[in-house]
Design a protein that fits this description.
With about 220 residues, the protein is α/β, with parallel strands linked by helices. It has one domain: Aldolase class I (TIM Barrel, Alpha-Beta Barrel). The chain has an 8-stranded parallel sheet. The radius of gyration is 16 Å and the shape is globular. It starts with a strand and ends with a helix. Bound molecules: D-xylitol-5-phosphate and zinc ion. The site of D-xylitol-5-phosphate has 22 residues, from strand 2, strand 8 and helix 7.
């Protein structure tokens, strides 16, 4: 299984994004947290900034994580802007399949985000409409929160549903992922790891990205 590390720039210096992104050349993608102050009690950045990131970093995989209401209306624009992956939340969508199909038709990977309290089981039949499932391992809204161990069984159940589907669907974990928690996530079946504070609060952020990737790979190899 391939493991991917997607550092979250929420925890970087948001006024120096270009420089911050250049600090982590080993990252497999840049995880861009879009918050609207309604779906979550925090406000970050939106489409105009994402368009600038796209223009300034043409070779970089942009993993947009939309924590915004009315996802069906807003998510496709992030695919149009050139993000390689667009995650919107089930809790903010009335028509997740239609929205996923729109995102895919615009050439991006479609991904579904789930708050901690949202179960995966009712989604088993629609999982193949998505290229990735994002399991939140904190309540969304802020970086630097403690990893929720109680989410591990849900990651396991998601892995079982993905395997049963026969499709290659990534399972992303987001929130509190660090050297202290990544192995538990690997064991549970995640393969895409968002790490915000763990990377950007490290003395050498790129070394942390490489370290997390090595830990994930070693853990998986041991099974
Ligand atoms: C939280 C965001 C995360 C956050 C992760 O709502 O979706 O991407 O930045 O930050 P850490 O890794 O510090 O929990
Ligand atoms: Zn995120």
């Amino acid at each position: 299984m391939t493991h991917r590390i997607h550092p979250s720039i929420l925890n970087a210096n948001l006024a120096s994004l270009d420089a911050e992104i250049r600090r982590i050349p080993s990252a497999d993608a840049i995880h861009v947290d879009v918050m609207d102050n309604h779906f979550v009690p925090n406000l970050t950045l939106g489409l105009p900034v994402v368009e600038c990131l796209r223009a300034n970093h043409p070779g970089t995989f942009l993993d947009a994580h939309l924590m915004i209401e009315n996802a069906d209306a807003h998510a496709p624009a992030y695919a149009e802007a050139g993000c390689e992956s667009v995650t919107f939340h089930l809790e903010a969508s009335q028509a997740p399949i239609r929205t996923a199909r729109q995102i895919r038709s615009l050439g991006a990977r479609a991904s579904l985000g789930l708050r901690p309290q949202t179960p995966i089981e009712p989604l088993a039949d629609l999982i193949t409409e998505f290229d990735m499932i994002l399991i939140m391992t904190v309540d969304p809204g802020f970086g630097g929160q403690a990893f929720l161990d109680v989410m591990l069984p849900k990651i396991r159940r998601t892995r079982a549903i993905v395997e049963a589907s026969g499709q290659e669907i990534w399972i992303q974990v987001d929130g509190g992922v660090s050297e202290a928690t990544i192995e538990r996530c690997v064991d549970a079946g995640a393969d895409v790891f968002v790490a915000g504070s763990a990377v950007f609060r490290a003395e050498d952020p790129d070394a942390m990205v490489r370290g997390l990737k090595a830990m994930a790979g070693a853990r998986c190899g041991g099974h």
